[in-house]
Design goal:
The chain is an alpha/beta fold. The chain has helices at 21-35, 74-86, 144-149, 163-178, 194-203, 248-257, 303-315, 366-377, and strands spanning 11-16, 37-42, 46-48, 62-67, 90-95, 107-108, 114-115, 183-186, 220-223, 243-245, 281-283, 320-325, 383-388, 393-398, 402-407, 413-418, 424-427, 434-435, 438-439, 443-446, 451-456, 464-468. The strands form 7 sheets. An 8-stranded parallel β-barrel has the order 1-2-5-8-9-10-11-12, surrounded by 5 helices. It has a 4-stranded antiparallel beta sheet with strand order 13-14-15-22, covered by helices on one side. The radius of gyration is 23 Å and the shape is globular. Ligand LAG binds at residues 57-58, 60-61, 96, 102, 152-155, 187-188, 224, 289. Ligand LAG is lined by residues 57-58, 60-61, 96, 102, 152-155, 187-188, 224, 289.
């Protein structure tokens, strides 16, 4: 359950946060497929309670398992999965089954379901009081029982040890597998007992071979477990039966780029740092939660440093890389772009490939999508020829497929370095693109000995330089 089933020649997952199904389908066909992205994490698919003013987080309050949300209908979802698979891009669903809603008067859902939330009655499933843990607040992260049996933010906590509850969850998961989804992100996995999750995952069907999955293929499962090392619950309780989100990844890189550590130390980045084994880890700089109210985490708002962190992530072989794609926000509750009656407004696409209508679309930044190409080119190679200046200027190659240099210092990077690439003239994919055989950015000449002069000035737009051999697809 740790195989992503990316189509060969594809790599990198992008979280298209709050996108509509129809727009994701278009994005797969027009951009993600051609650019070689491996997959999309989509926002929750199950019906959620409608919250006044329609904050993004209403989608984390399920009211039934019907496929009806602001992102679209069941038909639109099916059509999206089919079209993305045809474009070579896999779909991973954010599934929410730790809990249902919090308390709401006259709760109504995005698909028309109602619920008597105070009495734990959810006729749309149906669930009743019997299916939930007795109500108590999570208030002690040193107590695993409290974290797993009580309510996260007042959200009614399902009891996954109950056969009836397991069956409802497995049916929900099987239905998304039927339509061709490749796997799922398990929301709030830390708030559920590992032995229950193990049983639930083991009962889910194999992937649907009609969507070009090998027969017997298991869904990719990645579990949201926030473990910074100081609580009762550990990420190592979950990684034997599925992948796990590695929250330390983004914080460590953010700290280094914010001057609280030095990049030279990343020469042994990975398990040696206490991170999960590479194949068990989903890695990211920010996600939809950490980008809100965690000033220590880099986001699109500090774009130069953010692009350096993302470039490092995509250039480095450790982990399954996930790219955040955001809408612009200035507060925790800020809504996604929406009209006066609460319909989502989709991004428009500008001529330089970036997005409009209030969408950031980090995945459409040249420095980001070109590093996805780098990751594809460097697939199955190791980090070689690590170089650093003893501080925050670093460089490494990936086999003889790619070379990256990062300038995290406050002075210019000017070095003759061994790149391990074949001799030739390369186009830096950060400062430009190869367009009609003309490099619109910096060119790098690799000599007969594999060495090149590398320059990254502090006043440049970007603090990264990256070159790689061609990708043949
Ligand atoms: C997650 N992972 O474990 C999601 O990534 C995260 O975005 C979800 O919280 C959380 N777990 C529950 O699925 C989000 C917001 C919360 C919000 C919650 C439910 O970050 O702020 O809670 O979704 O909508 C909101 C209010 C709370 C209130 C609660 C219940 O902010 O104040 O108690 O709703 O009404």
């Amino acid at each position: 359950q740790k195989d992503l089933h990316y189509v060969p020649g594809h790599n990198g997952m992008v979280h298209l946060f709050e996108w509509k199904w129809g727009k994701i389908a278009e994005e797969c066909e027009n951009f993600l497929g051609p650019m070689g992205f491996g997959g999309v994490q989509v926002s929750p698919i199950q019906e959620n309670v409608i919250v006044k003013n329609r904050p993004w987080w209403e989608r984390y309050q399920p009211i039934s398992y019907k496929w009806a949300t602001r992102s679209g209908t069941a038909e639109e979802f099916k059509d999206m999965v089919r079209r993305c698979n045809n474009a070579g891009v896999r779909i991973y669903v954010d599934v929410v089954f730790n809990h249902m809603t919090g308390n709401h008067k006259n709760a109504k859902g995005t698909g028309g379901s109602t619920a008597d939330t105070q009495n734990f009655n959810y006729p749309g499933v149906p669930y009743s009081g019997f299916d939930f843990h007795v109500s108590c607040p999570i208030n002690n992260y040193q107590d695993a029982g409290n974290v797993r049996n009580c309510e996260l933010s007042g959200l009614h906590d399902l009891d996954q040890s109950k056969e009836y509850v397991r069956e409802k969850i497995v049916n929900f998961l099987n239905k998304i597998i039927d339509v061709g989804v490749a796997g799922y992100r398990v929301d709030a996995a830390k708030h559920m007992w590992p032995e229950d999750l193990k049983v639930i995952y083991s009962r889910v069907k194999n992937l649907n071979p009609e969507h070009n999955f090998p027969s017997g293929a298991r869904p990719y499962v990645f579990q949201e477990v926030i473990d910074y090392g100081s609580e009762a619950i550990s990420k190592y309780e979950y990684n034997s039966f599925g992948a796990v989100t590695e929250f330390r990844y983004g914080i460590e890189l953010s700290n280094a780029l914010n001057g609280k550590n030095q990049l030279k130390w990343f020469s042994n980045w990975g398990e040696a740092w206490g991170l999960l084994p590479s194949q068990d880890a989903v890695v990211f700089i920010d996600n939809h939660d950490t980008q809100r109210g965690h000033p220590e985490i880099l986001t699109y708002k500090s774009s130069k440093k953010y692009k350096m962190a993302v470039a490092f992530m995509l250039a480095h072989p450790y982990g399954t890389a996930r790219i955040m794609s955001s809408f612009a926000f200035d507060s925790f509750d800020a809504n996604p772009p929406q009209d006066s009656i609460g319909n989502l407004i989709s991004p428009t696409i500008n001529s330089d490939k970036t997005c409009g209508n209030g969408w950031i679309c980090e995945h459409r930044w040249r420095q980001v999508y070109n590093m996805v190409r780098f990751r594809i080119a460097a697939n199955n190679t190791d980090v070689n020829n690590w170089w650093d200046n003893g501080q925050n200027q670093i460089a490494f190659s990936r086999g003889n497929a790619g070379f990256i240099a990062i300038n995290g210092d406050g002075h210019d990077f000017k070095q003759h370095l061994y790149t391990s690439l074949q001799p030739g003239i390369y186009c830096d994919v950060i400062s430009g693109n190869l367009e009609n055989n003309v490099c619109t950015g910096k060119t790098v000449t690799v000599d007969q000995n594999g060495k090149a002069y590398i320059e990254i000035l502090v006043n440049e737009e970007d603090g990264v330089l990256a070159i790689h051999r061609q990708v043949n697809n």
